[in-house]
Specification:
Layout: E1 2-7, E2 16-21, H1 26-34, E3 41-44, E4 60-63, E5 70-74, E6 81-85, H2 90-97, E7 102-103, H3 115-120, H4 128-131, E8 138-144, E9 150-153, H5 160-166, E10 175-182, E11 184-185, E12 190-198, H6 201-211, E13 217-222, E14 234-241, H7 249-252, H8 277-290, E15 294-301, H9 302-306, E16 324-331, H10 336-348, E17 356-361, E18 375-383, H11 388-401, E19 405-406, H12 416-422, H13 426-436, H14 445-449
Parallel strand pairs: 2-4, 3-4
Antiparallel strand pairs: 1-2, 5-6, 6-10, 7-11, 8-9, 8-10, 12-14, 12-15, 13-14, 13-17, 16-18, 16-19, 17-18
């Protein structure tokens, strides 16, 4: 199926028109690569990158959601593994694995991401400080390069540089068609969760610094709307996979139940300006005070702990027709004061972000464009309004000043010079890209903006 479509990222801003084709086989993908034309081709999954990474103005986008087969589950191996096509969503994979007592090792903030997208963005979750990012758990990946050849790549195989350039490479080395992923065993689909409310940003950072290493999973939501002494007050949740013996009796009857409640899908009717200081303050107060001051060993299901926004279909429509920008950055642990200054800049800017997610990163991997690097990472969501670019430029300045970076899967606005400063191994990536795609067949709006073509 081929059609001309207006494509945008999850932020619903900066759309562009492309020819959209939905291939059903590797041969079909190779054929479309061969006739990409001057404007090239880029792979696309479920459209959950926030910016322009999966758009290709005037060119071709390949919708890989038709390659959605789970080919093999090895539940007895050490470790257990699964082989999947690139269009399989994390949601579908989790539903297939849980009855086998198996678990995906890294989950981002939504299950509505394809395996190919998870690799291309090297997604991370609440456990990066303890278990790394998605690419760290791959046995191999399959990639069709610009000459139409399909390669099976491993971390230490014949072409490890291409393997690592593909992880976090935003689809610019070729089309990922499948992968073998190492899994983890679980006794239930539930988690034991400890929750704490913190007084302010300093209190939050101290608690995370001193206690996160005792947990596999850790994440904090904090208030960036309330200014003054309570700035950065937070709800900190940390947890572990629940053992069968830790479940109440009624949950032990079906311990692998995949709880995925839904409150429906938001219609595309919201006006601009709905997210403002009044609504932002009300939301932040409600979110903070609904959480317990201190609670330990609470049993939570997958959606409650990992993916609360997945309960609301098309929640991005709440920001109105102008859309929103998610700004996610990471700075080293040594730059704690700069991180706090970023938070103060956000609070004093007049821009409103209600969804603010703070995590700690552990060691990064060998992928030159992988985002995680040891330090603090913060993601904030802003409706697109006047003055937002001024705030983002100030945040760029602070982040760059301490050797930090922004996440390309969320970005829609930085320039090529900033990218080079943020990712010191950019030339390593470009060397691989030029070797396997000398004519620049794989291209996206992001690639053009960042001069990666």
């Amino acid at each position: 199926m081929t059609e001309h479509s207006e494509l945008h990222g999850w932020g619903r801003a900066g759309s562009s028109a492309a020819r959209l084709h939905r291939p059903e086989s590797s041969a079909d993908i190779a054929a479309w690569i061969g006739k990409a034309g001057d404007r090239g081709v880029i792979a696309r999954g479920l459209g959950r990158s926030y910016g322009d990474a999966a758009q290709n103005a005037g060119g071709t986008a390949l919708d890989l959601t038709g390659l959605n087969r789970i080919l093999m589950i090895d539940a007895e191996g050490e470790p257990p593994t699964v082989i999947v096509q690139a269009g399989v969503s994390l949601d579908s994979l989790m539903r297939a694995l849980l009855p086998c007592g198996l678990w995906v090792p890294v989950l981002p903030g939504t299950r509505q991401v394809t395996i190919g997208g998870a690799i291309a963005a090297d997604v991370h979750g609440k456990n990066h400080h303890s278990q790394g990012s998605f690419g760290d758990h791959l046995e191999w990946l399959e990639l069709i390069t610009a000459d139409g050849t399909e390669h099976r790549l491993t971390a230490d195989g014949p072409d490890p540089d291409l393997f690592w350039a593909t992880i976090g490479g935003m689809g610019l080395t070729g089309v990922i068609t499948g992968a073998k992923l190492r899994l983890q065993r679980v006794e239930s689909a539930y988690f034991t969760v400890d929750t704490d409310r913190t007084r302010d940003l300093d209190d939050l950072m101290v608690r995370m610094s001193s206690g996160d290493d005792d947990y596999t999973y850790s994440v904090a939501w904090f208030d960036s709307v309330t200014r003054g002494p309570g700035l950065g007050r937070a709800v900190l949740t940390r947890g572990e996979k629940a053992k069968l013996s830790e479940l109440p009796a009624k949950l032990r009857r079906d311990p692998m139940k995949f709880a995925a409640p839904s409150f429906g899908t938001f219609p595309d009717v919201f006006p601009g300006g709905l997210v403002n200081r009044a609504t932002g303050k009300a939301f932040s107060l409600a979110w903070y005070f609904k959480a317990p001051r201190h609670k330990v060993s609470q049993i939570q299901d997958i959606t409650t702990f990992f993916h609360p926004l997945d309960m609301f279909g098309e929640w991005n429509r709440v920001y109105g027709p102008a859309g929103f920008l998610q700004y996610q950055f990471a700075v080293p642990f040594s730059a704690g004061e700069t991180f706090a200054e970023c938070v103060r800049e956000i609070a004093n800017s007049g821009q409103i972000s209600c969804i603010n997610v703070l995590k700690r990163f552990g060691e990064g991997n060998r992928a030159p464009l992988s985002f995680p690097t040891p330090g603090w990472t913060l993601a904030v969501d802003f409706p697109i309004t006047d003055g937002l670019d001024r705030l983002c430029r100030r945040l760029d300045e602070l982040v760059l000043g301490v050797g930090g970076r922004v996440y390309l899967a969320k970005d829609s606005r930085i320039d090529a010079a900033s990218l080079r400063m943020m990712y010191p191994r950019l030339d390593d990536f470009l060397a691989v890209r030029r070797r396997v795609d000398p004519d620049g067949v794989f291209v996206s709006d992001l690639a053009r903006r960042l001069e990666l073509v």
